[in-house]
Design brief:
Four copies of one chain form a homotetramer. With 263 residues, the first copy, chain A, is an alpha+beta fold. Chain A has six helices and nine strands. The first copy, chain A, has one domain: Urate Oxidase. In chain A, α1 packs antiparallel against α2 and α4 crosses α6.
């Protein structure tokens, strides 16, 4: 049967990334509280294609994914990247995977317990110029406006904000990267904001978070800076990008702030 | 050339609605302040298909839309519906159209002016059992939690909420329906909430809306009820459905309330 | 501490549904191949609120969800509905839950295996007028246009279509409803379409699905009707709604058809 | 009244971008056929904030937008950028604006006319290191699989694909950039694909596009390369990124290819 993809291409255009996207797949990730967590992911898998080949073999991406039966972590994703390079005879490959991650979280006063969901992702690439690994999370938080508090006789508008932290961990001795838990990034975001958000709050808890947020007003600028300060202090972080977006309760648009940094 | 669609079908299944969706098109709608407003819409157009016909002629929907050069209003949409019935020899037809609608709005103290956007829609249908017309809008608002205020020594969490109002206007004498402006529904939603939201607020305005919201705490239950009371009082409204959804600033989920009513 | 929600309301407006939405939570569902499947869900939970109460207690929805540790099935969801009615002293309650569901699927010729994802949902309600249960799924399929094939010397345009089937199962002897597997609805949709879609296809498989689709052209009207015929024949189905939407490869809009039916 | 934003910040973190996002606003853009076109846009506006200032004044972004009454083009956006730098005393500013753009398009045989919608965007920035301008468009196309055609006795699967072209125009003599029309990028994408897509096709047209696509099979790799070749030849293009994404009709995931290039 004819192998169209393997034909020669004469246009002289090398392709940076070719592959599949929107591939949904159940996965298992590491969980700081409970060791492992099953969740559902969306994958993007790609390789570089030299200018002389007409096409790549798309089915091999799914084959590789299907055979990859272990956890999806900073330890194992580089192996999937290497597997793609081999299987598709490619000089470089990249894997991106996004998934909801759940953390059991207790209310601050009553200890009422529930699950909080966070959008998380990993990105691993490998090629002749070396390997890279990146992780990211969006953490919903409460923000309370310092200006509104300062200029009003009472009250201050608050809203839900989203703190997105992306980090590249520092290289570790074993040729991989250092472990950073999503739970650590969640804590950094929650402490930078006016208050963390919770899955369940009884009245005693609601009183607590209301006054806690009022006592700690924060602009998007403040939240992004406090996150930046925390991440700069952490030797395991070699690069980060933090974006904070407030869904302003007094407007129909968002306010945002963004900082990128390299050690 | 063979007309596959006009062939006879033997399965005995009449189709309730068949047509096109996701059709984006520039339109003109009525504007209370400035008479007319150009905007961009997404259309769904459909007809009923009797069991004996294999298919409908999809290109005729776009032809009808293309020839329909006027405004999109409660007056003209029923004509497009009638046109579809004729052109596609259908016993009934329906048109749904969604678009952002812009209103020039002034800040409450400084009068600083900007545009506010609202998601709006019309739905018109016509058939042997008569015509129907429905309009809807989603109005962003500020809501401030009465419980949070009552139990806290200071502060109260607020957030952006979305008030979605759908109404069927009462039949008018001229065989159509009575005119209801989007601006009237916006006002109903804003008055039911803790505070309307604004495109632009200077510091004096921010102080005003902060204290206004604190002075008028409202649950989703309160907002949906106040909208219901206003709409019931309005003789031009023969049916409504109101949904209020708060993007809680202390949780990562929403609170909502819904009321449907028929005169 | 003041219980604002329990205060008396004088507006005379009963609320049809009040509760929480957008609650993401890990769940376990029944799996025809592997018995059980862990996945991630989004819940909407609500109760009716009589006109005399000011508000409902939103935290109780999450408490009920947190204590509900078993599988999410047609057997257990009615129990969560009953639990909500008790816990919130409500005359009626409703639970909607949406989740990706994964099926291991083999390529038609080579048997190459992969996972296919489907958007699925359950809706259970309970009240004085009885209980209802509904399930739904969106099945991606290949559709090939009969008109395009009939009028062209060679070729025929094909595209991805989405078959959405919602059913209410017939009441069973044990006071519940009859079991219908998602896999059965997937099969109905795949057989009605020009061809099912697959997670992985080697060249031999691609040849097979290409010619299979060409041999079985189908309009959205055909697909919706074939699904309707299959569902009407199945005594376990007391009601259904089928929507077929083709993301036309020759247009930038979709074609759709819809049939609703009650036994 | 206290100006919280103007207070001194001691954390030593400069903010790369701070501003507003999700601002919907009606705009006018240049139209090659009809000179001008009204449409609806979503803006993101931001400035850099030095480490010593606590916050920016968000309302000034909307004031600037409100006063900016002209067209949104490669000529005028740099002026809005400059205005933001002045108004917010910022060393750099950036404006991103996304909008649907409509083109009147005729069917290839019957000349039946309709509107096609395209997602378009501009991005303009200005700072001490100079100005940049970038434009982008997503063009829906038909793609027909060369492998499927080569290995099958008849037929070949086709699907809707999306060609996203982003370009930075070459600097012009008048200190701005050279004019590139969206219509030119639409043509490049349509010629690279198996066939352009159309708003309206009568049967003669459908026959034409079916056979045209069958005669010109193209992988995502082919489409991205043909676009790259066309753009490299055009002296007005100093940089481009092309992404092609096929919504495979035989899978539930997409295939994609991506090339970035700098003159």
């Amino acid at each position: 049967m004819k192998d169209t993809q393997s034909q020669r291409d004469e246009r002289g255009i090398a392709i940076d990334r070719v592959g599949v996207s929107g591939v949904r797949w159940p996965i298992v990730v590491w969980d700081r509280q409970f060791e492992k967590q099953g969740t559902t992911a969306t994958f993007k898998l790609a390789v570089a294609l030299p200018s002389e080949f007409k096409g790549t073999h798309m089915s091999r991406f799914i084959e590789a994914l299907n055979e990859y039966r272990g956890e999806v972590t900073f330890k194992t994703l580089p192996r999937l990247v290497a597997e793609l390079r081999t299987r598709l005879t490619a000089s470089s490959a990249v894997v991106e995977v996004r998934f909801p991650y759940f953390v059991e979280k207790r209310a601050p006063v009553t200890n009422a317990v529930g699950r909080m969901d966070f959008d998380c992702w990993f990105r691993a690439s490998g090629g002749e110029s070396g390997d890279t690994f990146q992780m990211g999370i969006t953490v919903p938080v409460t923000s309370l406006c310092p200006c509104s508090k300062a200029i009003s006789d009472y009250g201050a508008h608050s809203q839900r904000g989203y703190v997105t932290i992306e980090v590249r961990p520092t290289k570790s001795d074993d040729n991989g990267v250092m472990l950073i838990w999503f739970e650590e990034l969640i804590q950094i975001a929650g402490e930078a904001a006016s208050c963390p958000v919770y899955p369940i709050l009884k009245r005693e808890d609601e009183r607590y978070v209301t006054m806690h947020a009022y006592d700690k007003p924060a602009f998007v600028e403040d939240i992004v800076r406090d996150c930046a300060v925390s991440l700069q202090r952490d030797g395991r972080v070699s690069w980060f990008k933090v974006n904070v977006e407030n869904h302003e309760s007094i407007h129909n648009h968002a306010a945002f702030a963004e900082v990128e940094w390299q050690r």
